[in-house]
Amino acid sequence: MKSLSIVLILLISVISQTSFWPALGIYGAAPNLVLVFILAWVILVFQKDLSDSRKFWPIILAGLLLDLFSGLPFGVFSLSFIGLTYLVDWLIKNIFSRINFGSLVLLSLAATLFYNLILIILIRLFIPISVLFGSISFKDGSWPVNPYSFYSILLEAVYNTILITLIFYGIKKIFYQKQFR
What we know:
The protein is mostly helical. The chain contains six helices and no strands. Helix 4 packs antiparallel against helix 5. The longest helix is centred in the middle third of the chain and has 33 residues, at 101-133.
């Protein structure tokens, strides 16, 4: 039952993220629902041990679903989420000893910026391959990153921080009352 609810939350998040959610954005940025889910999952589940590979299935499933529904080269989202998982786990174990409001804000900001940076790098690496096969065609062969993209990423980081804070404390209040005192 727990696995089914995780799959349903992931499906709703991915379908929303790839369909109507971007249209609700302000100034070209909207919260990344799947990124927020992955961040909450890593913070709540991976606090003890990252070596348990059974905990990775929602992260890989989210990446594969986004890879299927997006027009980007396949594997970009999966690799970004796996890299993000290791970064957040490293930050939790080496920098933040406790998850409180301040560390949650910093984790969310760092995770969003790192995720978008990895996404840009991976897309840039995959575009020459995609251009050869005709699936993506830019005039000069480069991915357009401009100052507005940077502002959009910063605004997305703020939105994600607000959303993860609400979701994290809601989940904590409902499910983990005794564990986080």
